[in-house]
Design goal:
Layout: E1 18-23, H1 28-31, E2 37-38, E3 66-73, E4 77-84, H2 91-106, H3 113-117, H4 131-145, H5 150-157, E5 160-167, H6 169-183, H7 194-208, E6 229-237, E7 255-263, H8 264-268, H9 272-290, H10 292-299, H11 302-309, E8 314-319, H12 343-346, E9 348-353, E10 362-369, H13 370-385
Parallel strand pairs: 1-3, 6-8, 8-9
Antiparallel strand pairs: 2-5, 3-4, 5-10, 6-7, 9-10
């Protein structure tokens, strides 16, 4: 339930979730491919949330939180599509919910041991109430929601393709070693995480993909001046950073974010990867030193986002290799592919764990125009080869 003051989650006996069951003529192998494909290929597999209720006498609006669509690919497989409101849960919390549901389905409803061992935590008192943060979020969300309509949605999808890329565990290990050697005796006290080095590689590859080496200058819509600042917005999981730490099964949102502002000439240079990784790690330390709630208040404020939007070349990085999306099993085995479709709209990249558990590492999906995707793929492969020997 949403009002001008705050968002609240209600459940009453008899409440239900919208479920759609359908059949498709799409080719299953095409849908699970990592290769670039039209962003709208997957959209028919997604449910639509039922419409909001009309505001009541107190001006409150009730909105459904979740819809599910199960689509059959005859003789090939099935797809389970979700649409849910972020106000209820972040990626980690939602994936825990799905895995709990999957474990019950796998057992035929008779075995609740997985849920009993890993029950969701709904205790909101574990996080100190922070009115300023809540007000900032509501104001920012309300401002951007007022500009969201079907026309803007269609424009965001025009001429876009989506693709999935992988960074295997060996590459992650070599990137960490390279960064440690580059830092030498610097003050960086903790080794870089897989998320940090993967984010650094992504930022470096995307910036390099806008250079004439990969794309004709005449078709490059980005500011290509070497002194131009590229802005990467990275969402950071804060469950393990709060004091005391939140349980890993906390059901809700616990995210903040950082702005990574780097001069383009630094990113396209030979030390671009190390510079990006150093800035990302430094920004996370600053966030922790300032205090997570205070930092989140500034990050999610309307003025903060307006400042971010002024930067121009912006890409947001979300998700985490901790999500464990490929550990989900409804009784049919692990998923062949998991796709976060919201990247189609928001100019974002979404990290997840890798399907190949032997090689490990990270997968990420993103949506770009066809020309931009070709340029990014070439730049990414070039950067990845640096850590292949």
């Amino acid at each position: 339930m949403l009002s001008d003051e705050r968002a609240r989650i209600f459940y009453s006996d008899g409440d239900s979730v919208s479920l759609t069951v359908a059949e498709t003529g799409l080719q299953f192998d095409r849908v699970i491919s990592d290769l670039p494909s039209d962003v709208e290929l997957l959209h028919p597999l997604l449910p639509k949330l039922p419409p909001d209720d009309r505001p009541n006498s107190e001006g409150e609006t009730s909105s459904p939180l979740l819809a599910v669509k199960v689509t059959l690919f005859p003789n090939s497989g099935i797809c389970i599509g979700f649409e849910f409101r972020h106000v209820a849960a972040d990626g980690l919390a939602f994936n825990h919910f799905v895995k709990s549901w999957a474990s019950i389905c796998k057992s035929g409803g008779g075995d609740l041991s997985w849920v009993a061992k890993s029950p969701p935590c709904h205790d909101r008192e574990l996080i100190e109430e922070h009115t300023e943060l809540e007000n900032s979020l509501l104001k920012t969300i309300g401002n951007y929601a007022s500009h969201w309509d079907e026309d803007s949605r269609r424009r965001m999808l025009a001429n876009k393709v989506r693709a999935t890329f992988r960074i295997d565990g060996e590459h992650i290990k070599r990137m960490k070693a390279s960064l440690a050697n580059h830092n030498g005796s610097s003050k960086q006290s903790t080794p870089a995480s897989a998320f940090t080095v993967a984010s650094a590689l992504l930022c470096t590859s995307l910036t390099r993909s806008r250079e004439p080496e990969f794309v004709a200058a005449s078709s490059n819509k980005f500011n290509s001046g070497e002194d131009h600042i590229d802005c990467y917005v990275i969402l950071v999981d804060c469950m393990g950073r709060l004091k005391p730490k939140l349980p890993a099964t906390y059901s809700g949102n616990c995210l903040s974010g950082i702005q990574v502002l780097v001069k383009r000439s630094d990113l396209i240079g030979g030390n671009g990867f190390a510079i990006a990784a150093r800035v990302i790690a430094s920004k996370i330390r600053e966030m922790e030193a300032e205090g997570l709630l205070r930092s989140a208040e500034k990050f999610f404020s309307l003025s903060g986002w307006q400042e971010i939007m002024k930067q121009g070349n912006i890409l947001s990085v979300a998700g985490s290799p901790k999500l464990g999306v490929y550990e989900t099993d409804f009784g049919w085995g692990n998923p062949r592919k998991s796709e976060p479709v919201h990247v189609d709209f928001y100019g974002s990249v979404y990290f997840s764990d890798a399907r190949d558990k032997e090689k490990g590492g990270i997968e990420f999906g993103l949506a770009l125009s066809k020309g931009e995707m070709d340029a990014f793929a070439a730049a990414f492969e070039q950067q990845l080869r640096r850590f292949s020997e």
